[in-house]
Amino acid sequence: MIDIHSHILPGLDDGSRDLEESLAMAKEAVREGIDTIVATPHHANGKYWNDSTQVRSAVSLFREALEKHNIPLDVLEGQEIRVYQELLEDIQSGSSIMLAGSSYILLEFPSSRIPDTIEDVMHELRLLGITPVIAHPERNAEIAQCPDKLLRLIQLGALSQVTSHSINGLFGKSIQECAVNLCRRNLVHFVSSDAHNMSNRAFGLGAAYDAAAGLLGHEYVTYYQANAESLIRSQSIEIWEPSSSKSRKWYQFWK
Ligand SMILES: [Fe+2]
């Protein structure tokens, strides 16, 4: 399996605290069947600043440690970037980076709302040939209340990623329902762990795919897995047609 969103690098953010924890997380990832993981430390969220130089250095050191400990996990570079004023300049200057060297960038919104500037930012990103992947939309209050706001962003060219624990129910029933509904409406393109630690925020990716197979159908699991592979290979992503809020296909599910 490929995991495109994780906080596995040591000491950069609120994820792994140190190398020992990162190695334990890496072993757990491999045990679950993850062979490739994109390290996406928080960047520009007001608390953490991890520019490309810091991320690449940390990835390089961690890859060496994994090799030394014979842990067969391929770690690739990335960031989870809060939408901020200088984002476009920083992409052009190289201090903000894409996922795994692709043309896809992982964007984080505040939990309470969608940034006012998002449509302008998306337009500029698209002009640069960059596709934004919106991290965990199911945990954004504005999207949870009105999924059509995510539909609008998808129609403008964004993709989205739900968190494994949302599908698994770890964050509660309402977030699970929201996540599954977004999936049903084809507003989701990836499932990934957003793993932070070994205690309450580990991977759960295999479990999420199992849950998704039961709740949505195996074809969704195949779709998410193929999309993650396409992303790390810098290939275009197959995009299923999203459905409107009036579609019974998704609405029926929670009736
Ligand atoms: Fe994250």
TrEMBL record:
Keyword tags: Hydrolase, Protein phosphatase
Pfam family, one: CpsB_CapC
Top-level taxon of origin: Bacteria
EC class of the enzyme, as a word: hydrolase
Catalytic activity from the UniProt record: O-phospho-L-tyrosyl-[protein] + H2O = L-tyrosyl-[protein] + phosphate
Listed EC numbers: 3.1.3.48
Record-linked InterPro entries: Caps_polysacc_synth_CpsB/CapC (IPR016667), Pol/histidinol_Pase-like (IPR016195)
Keyword Hydrolase carried by entry: yes
GO terms, molecular function: manganese ion binding; protein tyrosine phosphatase activity
Signal peptide region: none
Family label: Belongs to the metallo-dependent hydrolases superfamily. CpsB/CapC family.
Name assigned to this protein: Tyrosine-protein phosphatase
Organism: Paenibacillus hemerocallicola
